[in-house]
Amino acid sequence: MSLRIYQSLWATELRRPGIPERPVAEHFERVKAAGFDGMAIDLGAMDIEAARATVPEFARTGLAGLLTAFPRSIEELRPALHLAKDIGSPFVIVIGQVMPLSVAEMVPVIEAWMRIGREEGVPLQFETHRNCITNDMFATLLLLDAIPDLRLAADLSHYVVDREMMLPISAEYQAHVARLLERSDSFQGRVANRCQVQLPLHFPQHRPWIEVFRDWWRRGFASWQARNPAAADCVFLCELGPRDYAITDANGEELSDRWEEALLLRRWALEDWQQAAALRVADPV
Question: Could you name the domain of life of the organism this protein comes from (predicted)?
Answer without folding.
Answer: Bacteria
